[in-house]
Design a protein that fits this description.
InterPro entries: RutC-like_sf, YjgF/YER057c/UK114. This is Enamine deaminase RidA (YjgF/YER057c/UK114 family). It holds the Pfam family Ribonuc_L-PSP. This protein has 138 residues and is an alpha+beta fold. The protein has a single domain, classed as RutC-like (60s Ribosomal Protein L30, Chain: A). Helices cover 23% and strands 30% of the residues. Strands 1-2-3-6-4-5 form a six-stranded mixed beta sheet, with helices on one face. Strand 2 (26-30) and strand 3 (34-42) form a beta hairpin. Helix 1 runs parallel beside helix 2 (92-105).
């Protein structure tokens, strides 16, 4: 990239170290706008990635983790333009829980684009939910 504008990797403190697993929590790229690509955030809390047993708490915790990553790039949920949701054993009840939490999270007049993928399992035992995102800031 020209002008020394290399991708910027940020792995915020308070989240587990992703290096041994072959990914980063987020990367932003300076263009006329800054684009931030955020790895899937689960409901794991803290550096030891402690998971709650219930879906709703995992969604809430994943959104808190996503917010932590966004803040490390001086961004908010309003900067997100694309999300991908991964839900273990997806059903209508889980979709309603997600929709309720999304309405609390995105308070602007628009919502990001979204893809929901139902899966049989995620990376770690007990993970029920994961969300990744792309955010843009002018």
């Amino acid at each position: 990239m020209e002008n020394n504008k290399q991708p910027k990797l940020i792995n915020p403190s308070g989240l587990f170290n992703p290096g041994p697993y072959g990914f980063s929590h987020s990367i932003s790229v300076e263009t006329p706008s800054r684009i931030c690509f955020i790895s899937g955030q689960s409901g794991g809390v803290g550096e030891h990635h402690v998971l709650a047993d219930d879906f709703k708490t995992q969604v809430q915790d994943a959104l808190k983790n996503l917010q932590l990553v966004l803040q490390s790039h001086s961004m908010t949920f309003e900067n997100i333009v694309k999300i991908t949701l991964l839900i273990v054993d997806h059903n209508q009840e889980k979709l309603e829980i997600w929709a309720e939490e999304a309405k609390k999270t995105w308070t602007s007049s628009w919502l990001p684009t979204s893809t929901l993928i139902a899966v049989s399992q995620l990376a770690l035992p007990g993970m029920l939910f994961e969300i990744d995102a792309i955010a843009v800031k002018n």
